[in-house]
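Onboarding guide, step 5: your first structure request.
Type a short instruction followed by the sequence, for example:

Predict the 3D structure of this protein.
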Amino acid sequence: MAKSADHFKDVISHAKEYGFVVPSSEIYDGLSAVYDYGQNGAELKNNIRWYWWKAMVQLNENIVGIDAAILMHPTTWKASGHVDAFNDPLIDNKDSKKRYRADVLIEDHVAKIEAKIEKEVQKAQKRFGEAFDKEQFITTNPRVVEYREKAEAAIKRMARSLENEDLEDVKKLIEELEIACPISGSRNWTDVKQFNLMFGTKLGASAESATDLFLRPETAQGIFVNFLNVQKSGRLKIPFGIAQVGKAFRNEIVARQFIFRMREFEQMEMQFFIRPGSQKEWYEYWKEKRMQWHLSLGLGEENYRFHDHEKLAHYADAASDIEFKFPFGFKELEGIHSRTDFDLGSHEKFSGKKLQYFDPELNESYVPYVVETSIGLDRMFLAVFSNALQEEELENGSKRTVLKVPAFLAPVKAAILPLVKKDGLPEIGHTLVDELKCHFNVHYDEKDAVGRRYRRQDAIGTPFCVTVDHQTLDDQTVTIRERDSMEQSRVAISEVADILKKDVDMAGWLAHL
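The system replies with structure tokens like these:
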């Protein structure tokens, strides 16, 4: 755990030092849980966004994309259930005066139990070597079985209590598990209370005539209220999906873990409209498809797992999270939810407008059911970034920090480096930049020794460095260095674009989905 904690500190430090993520309005001491993306962070974030968009919209003939407004009619949030049910269970420690989400305290406690299980597994694996059967060990080892039973019992009881709104039992569970305040170590807790997460705002020329609104806490409702507009204008037949990427806002009282939980964040969501009764089939389909997308990034299959919900949201009849192994443990990255007909049915009721689909094959109209996929873009950024940041010891005993992001996601695709700032080498370098920049984001760098320039590009994840030297003047060749292997080869200047395209073009990665 200590190693992961240290790695997370390195992630935050590296993100700031190299222009990826910085605290918002830092010159005024920042704003809690609000962050800005710097020049490299914006590029990486855009590339992740476009990979999702192209995979979801461009590769699927029956999915279209929209961009709905952040501000919506206030009745939207009454219909969606957010006004009455969008709450977090909060608990205060009387000694430290710190406030926590009660469910997160319990989940963190369970994570510690899971870490103990992992430690037992690693010890046994070391002891038994190749003969080790992990599945048999975790189902038969008395200590591991006891740990698992405790963890499962705590999660199930918490889910049941939250579903029944039995906040008193949630507090009892925290006390029985002997969960202490991370700051003070005290177990002196207040009662658990619900807190609504929506940000309020106003629309109008004066305070007297202003309308009370909310900043949207999710992007999904913008899709639901536009269901008929999109379906009719696009002449779409069920099953079909509507996708959207956009900002959402939640008044998180316990915002933490860098960009994992923020007050202003970005979601990538798709609502897939289907016939009633077919939701189980499509729910399983989208679980598989979304995991396939994640695995295509090459972040390691062992870093993903499904977690089925014990406590279902008021709109769902099935729900599962794709969890990723962040430096602070497995946490939710994407949700797949079978939302039934709750959303369209509720908006139909509150608006008085029919939100139905006429199915020509069945010759009947109905309110479609929905399967949702919802992923946090900022969390996806953190998953890619934290997984990619590595420190390597080289053969000569020196170390390098390298960001091994997938090449097509890298902020900069190639750095053009003249060996010296004279003899016509800068001119050749600038000409090459001009040839490449319409196709790729490339940097020109002539400052410092070439080795130091390599290290700078490694740190921001640049897949290729192209060095222009005196031999270039003679034969029009350059040295191209690959980031991960650090191997160098001599190639013709005319071949550079094709070499880059082979490795960094998003189309090549999309073709394998």
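Each response can be followed by summary notes, for example: The chain has three domains: 2-86+206-386, 96-196, 394-510.
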